Amino acid sequence: MGEIAVERRTVEWVSNPRDTESALSWQLERVGSAAWQDWSLKFQRMAFGYAQDSGWHDPADALRWLDHHALLHEGAVPRGALVWYQAADRIRVACSLGSGQVVGPLPSGQVGVAELSELSTDYVWSDAHFPFAH
């Protein structure tokens, strides 16, 4: 039997329309809103300034893509990184505020700030990168 080759393409890195601090401010302005329930990926995409779809169906799809392209990291999460975690039987994404805190639509249904350790002990992070967004 022959071997199966997996091709890992280089991903073009484009600066987000909104910088990290502006994206975090945008998110913090929405704390308490229930309008983003179950839309954690869309929330993060819009926070970083993209109005159009990300090209991924949901956070689980994005996580698989990021994993396939070796763009996921473990360990201490830097400010502005996207944090991918599982809660309530689904993959969710939030944005790191640094010092173990994240902001985004939480499993409770509202946008909020939380300690990552209280949301999940099983998480990975990636740079805020939306390769298919416009």
Describe this structure in words.
With 134 residues, this protein is α+β, with helices and mostly antiparallel strands. The chain has one domain: endopeptidase fold (from Nostoc punctiforme) (Alpha-Beta Complex). Helix content is 23%, strand content 22%. It has four helices and five strands. It has helices at 20-28, 40-47, 59-68, 116-119, and strands at 82-87, 90-98, 101-105, 111-115, 123-126. A five-stranded antiparallel β-sheet has the order 4-3-2-1-5. The longest helix is centred in the middle third of the chain and has 10 residues, at 59-68. The radius of gyration is 15 Å and the shape is globular. It starts with 19 loop residues before the first helix and ends in an 8-residue tail after the last strand. The model is unreliable at 4-8 (pLDDT under 50).
Secondary structure category: alpha+beta
Strand content: 15-25%
SSE order in H/E notation? Answer: HHHEEEEHE
Report the span from N to C terminus: 42 Å
Please state how the strands of the largest beta sheet are arranged side by side: 4-3-2-1-5
Low-confidence stretches: 4-8
Sequence-ordered SSE layout with sheet pairings:
Elements: H1 20-28, H2 40-47, H3 59-68, E1 82-87, E2 90-98, E3 101-105, E4 111-115, H4 116-119, E5 123-126
Antiparallel strand pairs: 1-2, 1-5, 2-3, 3-4
